[in-house]
User: What shape does this take?
Amino acid sequence: MTRGFLSDVLAKWKRFRWQGLVKVWAVFMAIALVLLVESLGVHYGATRFDITYLDRAKAIPAANAIAGQKATNLLVVDSSQEGVSDAEAMLDQILLDMKVPTTTVDVADENAEFPALNHYSTIVVAMPNLDRLGEHVLQIMQWVKKGGGVIFAMTPEKTGYLDVIGPQIGIESSTYEYVATEGITPSEDFMLGGGGQTYTFSDPFKSSLSVALNDRAQVEAVSSNGRTPLVWRNAVESGTAVMCNIGIYGKVFRGFYASAFSLLGSATAYPVINSAAFYLDDFPSPVPSGNGKYIKRDYNMSISEFYSHVWWPDLVRLAERYGIRFTGVMIENYGDDTKDDPVRQTDNTQFEYYGGLLLRQNGEIGYHGYNHQPLVLPNTHYGKEYAYVQWPNRKAIVASLQELIAFQKDVLPAATSSVYVPPSNILSQEARKIIGEDVPQIRAIASTYMPSDSSLPYIQEFGVAADGVVEAPRIVSGGMVGDTYMRLAAVSELNMHYVSTHFMHPDDLLDEDRGAKEGWETYRKGLEDYLDWLEQSAPSIRMQTGTECAAAVQRFSGLTVSMETTDTSWDLKLGNLTDQGWLMFRASNGTPGNVRGGSLTKLTGNLYLLKATSATVHIERKTGGAA
Assistant: This one.
């Protein structure tokens, strides 16, 4: 009976004269259904992470990882000299992150005993006036001749001892004059991002000594005008001397000093993060109604139309072109209610739509806030800097974060979130402690890396905190159009940690201070220029979400490395290696051959990226004598 019915229907369909129109109608209905599904954000799943968090117990702060190891490096300072405290603070963090066990001696301390140099393989001298070292300067140079490596990390003063050792460290002649260094141009073989590119200094001053070098000195970086050598090295019989003549010791220069230190010895290996993460702050969030002045000027669209028809499609194209996986951090509302009974957002449409599109790109949703009020208690004072409202107590802070977490799970049930970005990068120490103790869903905090003129921002280092929360700061932001400071920071961190973390806001185009007047086309082209630079400078860097970047920071934080060198090999021993570790490897004397326990990718010159899969890594040394 069923077969007969179907045959009858089929016969009538064949005689139906409008069947072509029905087919067209069916196609349109199918398209409409697809669009409806897309608009509802139904067709996304959970983010597929390529790397996930270690257990909190296995995530080790860098200081704990290196504690107790035998010092291989001697840091010599003179705290009585001007500028030494800044240089020492910078060098301490560099050596910690490079996992170089270090002993520090301060020659200003009359009770300090100068240690025997044969206990160390490298020495860092951080003082401008070398006469304060006296005969120890000559002892150091004799030690270098026997195979040691010394770096003079501070711009020297012209003194008697500098003149004595000058020829050994590559100086033909020097004057008493200092010159203003407006930028630095690293050689292509020395640093990622080199190759003739110049990175401009924000506030140049007369920081570099006027010197002329001898023919044996190998210059690795010069001033932007090409006249002043800023980093060079010189062979001293069996050893190496490196001189840094930059004369500025801020956080933004760490990568240059780390690269200079890596020139010592036949080879140097140090852990890195290997991650590029891109954040969209305030996304998803309630979309502002009405028009933006410059959006209306350029596109004749409302803010909502601009986001959906221009801004987001452009970001999707950038993501596809460069392999980016955006991490959006959610704001539930823009109110200023800081009581301990937060009210649920009732309009879920924008959150479901934009959140679904982000997850569809295999991006990630993180946390930004129940509202845009930074997590601070009444003892934090904004003064005239911000018009934000403080939270009354611990309970209110926790309640706001729990509401955000619950709201996100309600509107985007497939999202798996772990990263918190503080509004305006502001987070008080009390609130930071509260997060670590009371909000276990937050595994990482991504605030800001570079120091600020204000005391309010939460400034971070890359690593694992004592409470197990990962510190994974953002380095650069926005379109970076004409911002030379951020480009300097970007190249420095590419060489220090092999990392790039960037953030932008959907409402940047509503704020003249963030690029609104220049317009989205200029902003987008500035971002593309940065992405082109990053792709050219570090083509092998991993494009990751915030969670993946934080997981990479965990592995970097605990990883330690020691190396034994022979005529034919470099043998690395890695501590606290879990599934994989990443290291910069510079082969200054010899060429890497076959590798066991990992793999090498050439980055530039004699600089390689080492992926370690075993706690012992054997690298064949094909040419060059013993170190």
User: Anything to note?
Assistant: Residues 150 and 241 are 5 Å apart (CA to CA).
